[in-house]
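Lecture 7, part 2: worked example. A protein chain together with adenosine-5'-diphosphate.
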Amino acid sequence: MRGQRILIISHDSELGQTLRALLPSDAEVEVLSALTALGTPISPTHPTSLALVDVTLLSGRPLNLLELAPLQAMPVLLILPESLPHTALNPLLAQLHVLGVLVPPYTTDTNRAALDAAIRNAPLHLQKADLEQQLAAAQQRLDQRLQEINVIYSIGKSVAASMGIDEALPRIVTTAVNLTRAEEGFIILQEEGQLYLRASHRFNEPDAVPQRTLARDPVAQRVIQSGRPVMLKRETRLATGNLVQALLYLPILRPGGSTLGVLGVVNRERTAEFTEAQLFALSAIADYAAVAMENARLFGEIRREQHRLHSIVEQATEAVLITDEHDHLLFWSRTAANVFSVPEDAVGKPFLEVLQHAQLLELFHQAIEEPDSPQGEIVLPGGRVMNAQITSVPELGRVVVMQDITKLKELDRIKTEFVQTVSHDLRTPLTTIQGYVMLLERAGSLNEMQRAFVRKALDSLADITDLITDLLDLGRIEAEYEMPMQDLQLQQVLKEVQAQHQNQARDLDISLEIKLPEAPLQVRGNAYRLQQALGKIVDNAIKYNRPHGQVKIDTEDTGEHIIVRVKDDGFGIPLADQAHIFERFYRVILPETESIRGTGLGLAIVKSIIERHRGRIWVESAMGEGSCFTLLLPKNN
Ligand code: ADP
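Predicted complex, written out as structure tokens:
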């Protein structure tokens, strides 16, 4: 332990000498007679390793912390007098690094051992104290950094949440000023080639407020042009004539790179300069300013776009209702408001609560269950008819568009009525003509040519009668607002169809087979219309078949649907025609089928009937191999 410096502090010089004799000979020992003589002995280059303090120095007067302060940095061994109340030691033990005590008589082995241990432990104590000090300093620096990061983080959060720059920029300036403890801070933005002061703040003043005044600041101009920060650390007279002690200007950079403006902090009178750490922190804050401006720009665009969309929807002649993803009303057109009496405060309320129209609500429920753009007609009180379509946009909401089709419906009704009247009125004279033509043979013998003419006339009359019948049927199906439906078993319907076409098949030498399951094929439908539809498909399968051909009917229960397939091995349908055969009056032109009579309305009637049953129909066919018509009907469970 060479070179240790030990202080003995006591009034009693004899005691001082006694103790000195107990200390190692190589120690540098100094005896002081009073605590007040302390102060200089402690220096970092040559620290005192141990102080032996005579407690009698302190007795009889209150402990003075200022006196004790120099002792706080060093390990202490207390020299106790003959008698001392225990409690008198407590304040000392609480404030000093007491390594032990020496009790009279001082030359005992116990005291020596205490002294040796203290001399041994003292350097460790000093090291520990030093480390603690370093740790405290590091902790303080860390706390400050953390505080800075926290400030940056919270300004980031508040900027991200605010949509207007008038709100965000003053907050950013205030944060910059508080963080750097600058006298002043500001944001200058470049707008249309000019510099504008947009927010400024003096330290200790109330919060900054937005503003927009022309700014003349050559340093800011330089930062905008170069896109680099400027930091002045000593007293400088600026080109404007102003004197500053320290200044830090940072560019506010748009994510793409161009400079939008400047975030600056200035000390005009105070000589405190800005540090690199502050430059770093402020550049993060300047980035937030750029984010705030970008947010504001995007937000402005969205607002304009929303306004435009709102106006379009509002002015639309269609009734439009738009909901969010929770089916709460977002907005609606003026027409919708009038038609459905949507109250003005309906924004944010559930669609199903605000709209009180049964058909519309049913359609909306349908859209919720199967968001496949359901469409339907809605009859309003007073007889107006709307065609409504609901489009679901995943995670965004639904759009309900309704067009007023009252006039179209009326026209359609007039057209149907006209067709029906004309068809009906035509049928009566036609039946008469047919009757007379058939009687011709009985009226007298006809020659071969006359008989052939009669046959042709009868064929043509049959064609016209079929056409009129089909036209009347199609008109009726389409005019029926609601087709009466009942629970029925499809087996029954199919058996009827088979019975009806058995003779026709036999006449053409075609086999007609039907395979029916034991389990009932339950559907909800109109038996008469379903029989008509299936009858027309079977009729075609026989008509467009070859001699000795086959027609096979089978069914399948998928659990959700009943499928009926009508297969033939006739001429087949060219691919190009397959998409059109369900259209009205469409007939395939083939040499093989040219002579086969038909109106081109059969499959249009079938399609109409199946769709009224919420079913589907399609065909698969290959030329020369035959066709398969598949019919899908929802099951009635
Ligand atoms: P049409 O009264 O002419 O039979 P449809 O509407 O019933 O009218 O059928 C349209 C056209 O589809 C028919 O003209 C025929 O060319 C074709 N077609 C329908 N069914 C079959 C079938 N099973 N095989 C071949 N062609 C068919």
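Residues 5-134 form a domain with the Rossmann fold fold (CATH 3.40.50.2300). Residues 536, 540-541, 544, 568, 570-571, 573, 581, 586-588, 593, 598-604, 627 surround adenosine-5'-diphosphate (CB under 6 Å). Keep this in mind for problem set question 3.
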